[in-house]
User: Fold this.
Amino acid sequence: MNVRIVATVREFTPRTRAVLAVNAVNSFGGGLVLPFLWIYLGEVRGLAGWVPAATLAVQAATSVIGGLAWGAVLDRVTPRPVVTLVMCVAGAGTALYAVAGSAPMALAAALVYGLGISGVGTVLRFLYAGAATARERGLAFSADYAVFNAMTGLGVLVGGVVAAGGPGGDVARFAALYVADGVTFLLAGLAFLVLLPRIEAASPKPAAVDGYGGPAIGYRAVLRQRTLAVLIATLALCSLVSYGQLRSGLPGYLTADGAVGAGGLSGTFAVNVVVAVLTQVLFGERVQRMRRSAVLSATGTVWTVAWLLVLAAGRQHGTTAVAMAMSGVLLLSVGEALVFPVLTGLLNDLAEERVRGRVNAMLSVAISTGSVVGPLLAGATLPLARGLPLIVVLAAVCVGVVLVGVVLGRVLPPVVDLPGPEDEAAATADTAEAADARSAEVPASLP
Assistant:
């Protein structure tokens, strides 16, 4: 991490630093079990083939419903009890997998875990959004992205070593990983329960914090604010062409005709993790000095080139195919490392304090939706014309992202599109109201 990034982190408020530190531990725990659920339930536990699929489906569906519920709760009460409860529910859910020796127990674990994990991202973003300035908020989201990827990657490595061998049988080793993941959630909940009151007592309250318990505004009213609706839809599209394809369309297309083998495919995933972290470390602070709409357009352009490289790689073989595939994944990784923290910061700058919980819940749902629709799109289009329709659709969506960025650049208030280091107003309710007034200018035809 370069000196500038270290200096920036030191300037964060105690609350932001505490959330980053706790999430680092939490992300490591999540990495311990990230790749293993299907293998654990199907091969290690020996459950029927439908159980892993049904478990993941229940977990995903519960995450969507639970995320929206947690967002509404955050808009009505102070975050401290919600954070602790979310962490405890998620920890209990993942720990239940350790004893999931039957289909009902696996589905029960999925239900509890889905309910808990759906709120984790929402409450963490909510806490970052309480930063003193818009610039710190944006840097916090960037730092969180880097920390999440780095610690998750480390957890995956450690989890792989534990799963591959060690004392005890296969069931015991995998169960230990799920218990360890549960412990990290519980430690996170305890840390927030103890630290948040002390930190918040010594920190200025975020703007409009007294809005808790004020007039209720539902999700429908939030989505009537056109800029917010467009940004949430754009996040879903960004997730569709990046997260949603990395484990479905991308490997499916590259391996269909033998263009890239298992070794080359592993290399592309390693590129994704390493580049995502390095991009934030090297460019996270610099991106805060760029117009957010320009970052969105640049990301759409980079992703369009990336998918064209992947298209070409699937028509090649050997070293050429692997090199082109890795180049495409590199560009995909750079784009996702830049655009998701930037759009998260932009959404939170535009949101009024009284609906910030709902906005962050919809943000999580949008990313999850893209990750779910991505594999469905890949499954439907990969068998056609050697996967060409899939790449064409993805490239077209990327071009659409470019156009959204261009339009947003014309309608976003300058203080929101490019918040300066001293722009305290970017974090106030006045900024949100000004943004809402301008939001009507966004064309209804945008994706």
User: Anything to note?
Assistant: The two ends are 37 Å apart (CA to CA).
